């Protein structure tokens, strides 16, 4: 269904030029502190894990260093797991769920896995509560060679520097009301296309890979999360965000073709979590808990197969 919604920047049907992107950037404001809310939580974790700075964003290299945490008993004989959060900086539980997993659960899995966690891939997006970076580029559509996103390129370089295969990658995200109120209308305006209103599902769901769906892995992850929060139901057409469900709470995307973070490796087990923090049925802590439950459920499933 098309919408009469008119975005305040740009002309309908015309892609943004640098002029419109500059107008958009000028109205973006800082709303919270990456240093206070994220970096200060990472520093004490450096006592138990290797805290690595793998880069910094050129927008402000002092303000936006990029960090990852690694388990210390790294062993080339163990499978390696990648956990990412904050690829879309505005998706809060992705960031804080990743940090909570490191703080409370990572030690329990470090004998079995090498684990590396990049909890806030897009710190400028975190501070401005934004899906894009300052260049109006979506990092989560930019995981490919010669990426236009510093955030994506930095994470890809970090993963390449590990020099090992990734067995599993869990990418922690949210779907929020602002997706339809701001971000999808802005995307349509930027690309000069008509905005078609969608529906935000109330609950948790997963996005698997069309080319490597791993249905049992996705199911185990959903079952773990179910203990913490409710699973998103499909709409009347059996879909979630326009995609047909493959099982309860699971849809698939062609992750590599779309340049998604979850497609940046050739992992055997990959998934993207989606929490709905605007639901009246949850609070912020429950959203973080759901992200942790997704990671632990995924890892518990893999352990049974090793």
TrEMBL record:
Taking every annotated instance into account, which residue ranges of this chain make up the domain Peptidase M14?
A: 30-306
An example GO biological process term is: proteolysis
Q: Give a GO molecular function annotation for the protein.
A: metallocarboxypeptidase activity
Q: Which InterPro entries match?
A: Peptidase_M14 (IPR000834)
Q: Coiled coil located at which positions?
A: none
For this protein, the record's Pfam families field holds: Peptidase_M14 (PF00246)
Gene3D superfamilies associated with the record: Zn peptidases
| Xref: PROSITE patterns | PEPTIDASE_M14
Q: Which family does it belong to?
A: Belongs to the peptidase M14 family.
**Protein's name according to its UniProt entry:** Peptidase
């Amino acid at each position: 269904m098309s919408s009469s919604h008119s975005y305040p920047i740009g002309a309908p049907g015309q892609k943004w030029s640098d002029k419109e992107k500059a107008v958009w950037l000028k109205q973006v404001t800082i709303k919270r502190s990456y240093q206070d809310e994220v970096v200060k939580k990472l520093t004490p974790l450096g006592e138990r894990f290797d805290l690595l700075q793998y880069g910094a964003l050129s927008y402000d290299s002092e303000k936006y260093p990029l960090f990852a945490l690694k388990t210390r008993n790294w062993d080339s004989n163990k499978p390696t797991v990648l956990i990412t959060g904050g690829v879309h900086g505005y998706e809060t539980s992705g960031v804080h769920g990743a940090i909570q997993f490191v703080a409370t659960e990572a030690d329990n899995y470090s004998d079995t896995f090498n684990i590396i966690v990049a909890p806030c891939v897009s710190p400028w997006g975190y501070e401005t509560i934004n899906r894009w970076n300052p260049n109006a580029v979506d990092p989560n559509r930019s995981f490919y060679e010669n990426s236009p996103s510093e955030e994506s390129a930095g994470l890809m370089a970090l993963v390449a520097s590990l020099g090992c295969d990734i067995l599993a990658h869990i990418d922690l995200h949210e779907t929020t009301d602002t997706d339809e109120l701001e971000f999808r209308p802005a995307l349509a305006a930027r690309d000069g296309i008509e905005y078609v209103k969608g529906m935000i599902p109330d609950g948790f769901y997963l996005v698997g890979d069309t080319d490597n769906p791993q249905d049992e892995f996705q199911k185990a992850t959903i079952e773990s999360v179910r203990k913490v929060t409710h699973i998103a139901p499909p709409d009347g057409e059996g879909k979630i965000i326009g995609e047909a469900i493959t099982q309860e709470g699971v849809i698939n995307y062609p992750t590599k073709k779309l340049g998604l973070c979850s497609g940046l490796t050739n992992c055997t087990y990959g998934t993207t979590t989606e929490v709905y923090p605007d639901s009246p049925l949850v609070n912020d802590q429950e959203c973080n808990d759901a992200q942790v439950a997704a990671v632990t459920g995924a890892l518990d499933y893999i352990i049974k197969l090793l």
